[in-house]
Amino acid sequence: MAALLIRSIARTIKRPPATASAAYSTEGKVALITGGASGLGKATAGEFIRHGARVVIVDSDEESGFKAAKELGVAAEFMVCDVTVEADIARAVETTVERHGKLDVMYNNAGIVGPMIPASISELDMKEFENVMRINVIGVVSGIKHAAKVMIPAGSGCILCTSSVAGVLGGLAPHSYTISKFTIPGMVKSAASELCEHGVRINCISPGTVATPLVLRYLRKVFPTATEEKLRETVKGMSELKGAECEEADVAKAALFLASEDGKYVTGHNLVVDGGMTAFKIAGF
Ligand code: NAD
Known about the structure:
CATH architecture: 3-Layer(aba) Sandwich
Family: Belongs to the short-chain dehydrogenases/reductases (SDR) family.
CATH class: Alpha Beta
Oligomer: single chain
Number of domains: 1
CATH superfamily: NAD(P)-binding Rossmann-like Domain
Distance between the termini: 50 Å
Helix content: 40-55%
Strand content: 5-15%
Keywords: Chloroplast, Oxidoreductase, Plastid
Pfam families: adh_short_C2
GO molecular function, one term: oxidoreductase activity
Number of helices: 9
Main location: plastid
Bound molecules: nicotinamide-adenine-dinucleotide
């Protein structure tokens, strides 16, 4: 069992006052975000902090995790945690509650795309498939389980998970990723049906394509000689909504709504944030 390395950034300075508006506030909330060192997790941590929360980001990438916590400021701290190791998740939740007295929001966001080659399911490498499932599925279930352990007795809490447009439509991403992301709305429905009676909400977000390190790495494999600018343009071109492209902040704001009291009646839901991408494909134009 991998040992959990925990180091918190020294926090002697008083937290700056939140610039929270009355709507979509996370004032006073304590949130834990997996995969918080980069991309959507980091952007969401920033959004929660700007609206008054304290955020514990956890990630298997130690260097990026400490760097992200520093950038996010005094309301953020970092713990190393591999979501495939249940003991890591358990310790991250326990340590958060020990340090902050509670856990209001658990965001199971860490994920990988996994290998895209070979593209045919007839050639699927089962070891690679298992690896994607361990992070994208078992890691999320483990996060739900350990958050529920503290939220059920507390009688409140909000659990968020990240699915994808690839979990709504087939054929947008490699098979392992698509299969893994289809499981997320299912586990959300299953858990929501039980957690309702305890006052705990659980929802997932299905983002469209955002130019995070994950997507840029993936596109780099498809277009090995393209410049970063060209890759970013490719992502922009995936938006169906005139005049808009999906940015990290769009996903972070959806998470903020669900985590705030304004989302208090929303549970068991898959919030698609894709600028019409799935509507467009379903409509078959
Ligand atoms: P990212 O690569 O920028 O961030 C993912 C983070 O997860 C990284 O910091 C990585 O170190 C961490 N991580 C990976 N394996 C881990 C493990 N075993 N334990 C702990 N942390 C681990 O990617 P992102 O685009 O921000 O993706 C975040 C989530 O959003 C993923 O679940 C991804 O599938 C999903 N998503 C992304 C997009 C997009 O367009 N970027 C679209 C739909 C869904």
